[in-house]
Write a structure and sequence with these properties.
two-stranded antiparallel sheet, mainly alpha, 313 residues, Transferase(Phosphotransferase), domain 1
Amino acid sequence: HTWLWPCRYSFQDEEDMFMVVDLLLGGDLRYHLQQNVQFTEETVKLYICEMALALDYLRSQHIIHRDVKPDNILLDEQGHAHLTDFNIATIIRDGERATALAGTKPYMAPEIFHSFLSGGTGYSFEVDWWSLGIMAYELLRGWRPYDIHSNNPVESLVQLFSTVSVQYSSAWSKEMVALLRKLLTVNPEHRFCCLADVQASTYLSDVAWSDVCHKRLEPGFVPNKGRLHCDPTFELEEMILESRPLHKKKKRLAKNKSRDNSKDSSQSENDYLQECLEAIQQDFVIFNREKLKRGQEQTGESTSPPETTDEAE
């Protein structure tokens, strides 16, 4: 899908799992926020449209992302947004509800916390649209609408959503504010939670959705092609601190195998973790996108998502 970060290949050896994805050089939105980039309404408007299409596609595949946030939105060189990081995504079938407490707290929808505390009916695709609203607000204002941090107790967050009102900037257009209000509606039954909802909003009524689909709209913010859009210090530290370099892998594997044979694994405190790792290894899917495409072309199957019309359904 155009607005998702595609996996091209996946494979593994005895120690590591590898996933090969497209190279996106524009950096993530968190990095640009930290660089004090001032995103205009028009820029954020396009991000909302692109992410709405991404979430609509995920819904068609029964997937809840559960971690939509600036850190997980990567820009390409032209400035278009792509949704990444499906580490905590989940699949729900028709009629099912998710119940796990999963996500990044400042971006998690109220019903996730309610479900965790009360053991209620759970939550569904609406949570991703709440996260989209939080992210859009943050891009426009530079901070999030709710003062939530990772160490906040769940009980306090449930109370916060029932007592704190979101403050919108008077500098924003009333149409943008109206859209954000619908995305940030605490009750998921009244929240905008699908592509048709946002397409019907006054703020997005002038959007040519076919142009969005085909990347024909020029983003308001284009990353500087002459700069590295990440923190090089962090990347260097990661490389220096790496204590398990690949060129020593054969020797390390032999040593680990010898150590495993010499101890009674049934006495290990890590038995459960080992079982989980083995399950991941067994279930890991070796993937080659090019082979898949060739096979689909031979059978006449389509690899492209369905076209989106300009009008709301």
